[in-house]
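Record pair follows.
FIRST:
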Amino acid sequence: MLEPAGLRAVLRALTGVVATVFVGASPAHAASVEAALDSRAAANAAAAASQAEIEKVSDDTDKMAAEYRALLKETRALEVYNKQVEALLDSQEKEMESLRGQVEGVTHIGREIMPLMSRMIDGLEQFVALDVPFLPEERRQRVVDLRELMGRADVTISEKYRRLLEAYQIENEFGRTIEAYRGNLDANGGKRTVDYLRIGRVGLLYQTLDGEETGAWDAKAATWMVLPSEYRASVREGLRIARKQVAPNMLYIPVAAAQEAK
C-alpha cells in the first residue's frame, strides 16, 4: 500500500497527464480536479491511519487474549496442584497421628519389657552358675556385658532385646554340640593347663596335655574327679572328633544318670 505522500505524488502526476491531455481545459476546471484529488488522497490517508490503528488494536487484543488463556491455564494447574497438596497434607496428618500412637505404644511396651529383660538376665546368670562349668569366664562375662548394655541410653530397646535373645540362643546351642578347648584346671591342689571336652551338657571331661590324667565333672558332687585310665583313649578320641580331625564315632565316657526334676 502506498503512503499518503506517495499517493499524492502519483495523483499529481496523473493530474499533470490529464492537464496535458486536456490542454484546452480552463484553469478553474483544472484547479477543481486537483482539489478533488487532494481530498481523495486525504481520505485515503485517513483510511490508512484508521486501518493501522485497527490493526494495532487487533494485535493488542490478540496479545491480551493469549495472556488470558495462559493465565487461565496456569490457574487450572494451580487448582489441581492445590487439591493434590491438600490430599498430601491430609495423608501426612493421618500418618502423624499413627506415629504418635505408635510412640505411645512403644513407651508403654518399654516400661513393661525392661523389667522383663532384667528378670531374664537374672535367670541367665543363675543358670550359668548352676550349669556344668564349661567356658566359665566367657559365659559370666556375657552376663556382665548384658547388664551393662541394659543401662546404656544410646542403645535401643529392640537392640537390647536382640542381644539378650542372642545370649539365650548361644546357651541353647551348647546343649547340642561337641566342643574341645584348652584352659586352666584348678583342682587336686594345683592349677594346670588341660584340654577340655564338652559333649552337650551331659559330659564335661578333661585330659592333661601329656595324656597321663583324665577326669570328669561330677555334677552331683559339684567337683572334678579323676577317671580310671581306661577312659584315656576314648577322651583322646573325643577331642580329635571335636576338632574335626577324625570322623564322628562312638565314645566310652561316664555320663551322670538323669535325676527327677524338683
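SECOND:
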Amino acid sequence: MQNLSAAKEACLAAGISEDDFYKTIQSFEGTSGRLQKLKENEKGIFFYDFAHSPSKVNATVEAVTARYPDREIIACFELHTYSSLNKDFLPFYKGTLEKATYAFVYFNPHQFELKKLTPLSKDYVKDAFSGKNLEVYDNSEKMFASIKSMNISHPVYLFMSSGDFNGCDMKSLSEELLSIS
C-alpha cells in the first residue's frame, strides 16, 4: 500500500490524472516475487514473497493479516541471507511474525557452513523471533509435513524467502496445500 501510494503521488506529479491512475492500476499484477498470489481456490490462498529483511517480513505479514482479518494466516519464513543467519542480526526479527495465526521459521544448517557463520540453534532462533504459535525447523520436509497436517478451513499461506526452502517448488507446494485444506 505504501508503494501504491508513492506511485500515485509520482504519477500525479508527472501530470497523470488520479482517474487515469486508478483505471490503469487495476490491471497491475504486481512485481514478480513480491506478495505473489500463486494459487487461490475455494479451499484457500497461497502467497509467495521475496521477503528477507525484518522490515519486509513485518510489512508483508501486516499486509496479509489486514487484507484477510477473518482468516487463519500460516506464515513461513526462511532464514537465508548472510544477515538473517547472523546471531547478532537475528533479534531484529523480533515480533515480525506475531500477527500470523501460525508462524514457521526454517533455516538450512548447511548455509552456516557455506557462509562461514556460527550455527544457530532452533531455540535461539525461536527466542529471537519470539511470538505466539511459532515453530522453528532446520529440516524443510519436516516443516512441510507439519503444515500439511494442520486442519484449517480456508487458510491463507504466506511463504517468504530470498531462497527456495531447500529446493522446494512453490507452485507445486501451493497446489498440494490447497488440495488438502
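COMMENT: The radius of gyration is 18 Å.
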